[in-house]
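pasting for ref
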Amino acid sequence: MRCPSCSSSAVLYDHLRGEQICTRCGLVIVERSFELEPEWRRRPGEELERADVTAGIDVTLHDFGLGSKFGVSEDLPPSWRARLRRMQLWQRRSRASTWGERSLREALIELDKFCEDLALPKGVKAEISTLYRRARAARLTGGRGTHQVLAALTFVTCRLRGLPRTEGEISRMLATRSGLGAREASNNLRRLTKFFTRKLKLELPRISTDDYINRFATQLGLSRQAIERAHEFHGALPKRFRQAKPPLLLAAAILYLASKSTGEKVTIKKITNMMGVGVSNLSRTAQSIRELVVGREA
């Protein structure tokens, strides 16, 4: 670049002010220019590193993570540390000054515990948070327990993402967190799932049987041979039979037959306790699969 005043090529870019200055005549050619490249910084005794590595807006926090935070150094005197900790307390309270903000913060804290119990990644937690904000904005959460609403939205999000989390798992987690009975928690979960699905205009796809097989086969400690055998059984079943059975029940019966065919000791009670299906239903379904697939192969 040449200076338009003196035609000199001695143009310097000032990174601090964002200006391009001619060092010969002092003319400011460009001011307040923006750098689109990443910002770098170097701390004393450390290597060069990116400065813009913050997470940005976080929907899992009530204020989207835009509130300020500060820490307390242990090198300060005790009186200063006590004073700063009191300031921290009031600063945290000021981040949620209204009743609505405090309610949202408490709900998102409970959601964090839900996702930790179910081993859900942060991306799924962000989607649940977005659904919860939509439900609050539409005034669908009033008069309903926070735990029950979060459990229903968690189940809805898992279905939308195709994650093999069963209704029994989430209802047991809801019963533990809210203190409800097992039957009451299950009924509330089903009722609110239908309610939010209808009000938010969502379509819930079915979780595939193969996803349930892959997930619970690992938890049951089955070998690779048994897992491959289970997928073979599932692929050999007629399409009409697969569509008529719940995917979870079908996966439980297939895993039971696959473990028996490979000689692995997995009891039917262990499968029913882990996957939350009935013993009689599993036995009848396994017998039907044995007649359709195993008996035909024999």
